[in-house]
Design goal:
By secondary structure, this protein is an alpha+beta fold. It has 7 helices and 7 strands, in the order H-H-E-E-E-H-E-H-H-E-H-E-E-H. The strands form 2 sheets. The chain has a 5-stranded mixed β-sheet with strand order 2-4-5-7-6, sandwiched between helices. Strands 1-3 form a two-stranded antiparallel sheet. Helix 4 crosses helix 5. The chain is globular and about 50 Å long.
Length: 256
């Protein structure tokens, strides 16, 4: 029997083509809000969920430095946190657990990546891009920061989280790219299009992305089509991708 036990079925189950999800993602911040929940944010570490805030750490390629405005905390809404606990129980059957990189995100961090870091990186690779074309490329991966109650960035709601899977208290599973690799390599279905050039590393990444995708899907999360690590439950992106009539969560505030 596989070391993954009953979870092996998820590793063998293809991730659906993400073309339709990419279409639904467009202008997701226009999706209706409410009635909104007033749930508080919870510290995931207090629930036994492993992780380290990627932007607080300096061990965070490709940045290799702490991002100004980052928090060491990993915070999420109560229901979102409870769902992550349930997912950990399933993964524990194979000696695995979630590892969270980011959850609720301060506006300063979102603004830095959207306004400064990502445009500069894109210009290095595509100097011809500018104006609206550059903004569209940036926003494939980094949502614009917003203080608007009607159009919050996903991580500002406490309903979005970036995560992977690791062996309990051990090594992360291979997912085919580093976290925050904002290229097509990070697309959720990148390795679903098998070809003659697929190597063992690609096949392992495909199986592990499937495991993460279906483990999160079982608890009602929706995954960003262009980021294998990003999942939402209750925000506008989740509502747009799932077909829910309205988002459950708006802007959240950190509490002491």
């Amino acid at each position: 029997m596989s070391i993954f036990g009953s979870l092996a079925a998820w590793r063998a189950r293809p991730i659906p083509d993400q073309g339709p999800a990419r279409a639904r993602k467009k202008d997701f911040r226009a999706h209706p809000l409410g009635p909104l929940s007033d749930e508080a944010l919870m510290d995931l570490g207090e629930l036994g969920i492993a992780g380290e805030n990627y932007y607080w750490s300096a061990h965070n390629p490709p940045y290799w430095r702490r991002i100004e405005g980052a928090t060491p905390k990993l915070l999420a809404r109560v229901v979102v946190a409870a769902k992550l606990v349930k997912i950990n129980r399933r993964l524990a059957e194979a000696g695995l657990e979630l590892f969270v990189f980011d959850a609720w995100r301060p506006r300063a961090v979102q603004a830095y990546f959207h306004d400064v870091w990502m445009p500069a990186e894109i210009k290095k690779r595509a100097p011809h891009l500018s104006g609206d074309a550059l903004t569209r490329e940036v926003e494939r991966y980094w949502a614009a920061p917003s203080g608007s109650e009607a159009r919050p960035a996903p991580h500002a709601t406490g309903a979005a989280c970036d995560l992977s899977i690791r062996w309990k208290d051990g090594e992360l599973l291979w997912m085919g790219s580093i976290f925050d690799d904002v290229t097509e390599l990070a697309h959720r279905d990148r390795f679903e299009h098998a070809n003659a050039d697929m190597c063992f590393s690609d096949e392992e990444a495909r199986a592990n992305r499937r495991l993460l995708h279906w483990a999160m899907h079982e608890q009602g999360f929706e995954g960003h089509p262009d980021e294998w690590w990003h999942f939402s439950y209750g925000d506008q992106l989740w509502a747009a991708l799932s077909g829910a009539p309205a988002a459950i969560y708006g802007l959240a505030k950190e509490t002491n």
